[in-house]
Hints:
It comes from Pseudarthrobacter equi. With 286 residues, the chain is α+β, with helices and mostly antiparallel strands. It is built from 10 helices and 6 strands, in the order H-H-H-H-H-H-E-E-E-H-E-E-E-H-H-H. 18% of the residues are buried.
Amino acid sequence: MRPPFNSGGRHARTSSHVASCPECALAMRRERQYLERLREAPIPPASNDLTARLLERTSLLAAQPVPATLPLTAPRTAARVLAMAAGGTVAAAGVLGVGALAAAGEPLPGNAVAPATLAQVSAHTPADGRALTADQLSSLRQEGWACPVLEAMGFRLESAKAVTRGGQPAVELRLSDGSHYATLTEQHAGNTAAVEAVGRQGSPVQVLGTSPWSATYTSGGRTFTFESNLPAEQADDAGPILEQVGGVAAEGLTAGVDSNAQDAAQEPLGNRLQRGINRIVAVFTQ
Length: 286
């Protein structure tokens, strides 16, 4: 390839010369194009072989012992080098530790399942009237909602939707046994204190004997409103069932919250650091 400028001093890079010399102007344009292509070219990732060699070299350097005696010719220089090396090592270790803790995230609880309090469940329930699928109902049950279908009374689920009652989210179930219907609305207390205050209440707070028959039950921090066109002597069978399922769901949720809160702080710091380092290594080796 010809050099962009001939030797001998006849060509110069001055603007006046380039303006009057087409050969030099063309050479400078080509040079700019080469530089632009180099800037836009993607940087290839480091190969696994290069990464392995770097790690091996780092391990070898770290394993080398520090000399016991320093040359007497330059003691101050050697001391400064050692101080800088020690400071760099401490800084690198600190950065690595902070990065590992950040990558590890929060301490893992003993059963690695995030607890869902009543307030969290209520906050995450879409209470805009949308229909709920069977999978969504199953997820709500896992998060602490009872969503009882009252199969013991012969009912089956026709539809379910998320609604708002009194400014709080609720789940409304539409049930039927083929001849009669029932509407069951479940709503949760807003906080743990309210759950503990009403956790063992089992009597209906309101019963209306008119048709359709309706009653409201409070159990385990949950309020169930039951309405049905069943005869009153049959409709009131829902009370014991709702009291039982509400209490069982509250006990299971409270036990999960207490055990997870105690186990979350028991993960050793070394385990968190190791977990974070593993995540960092996984990112750089992908």
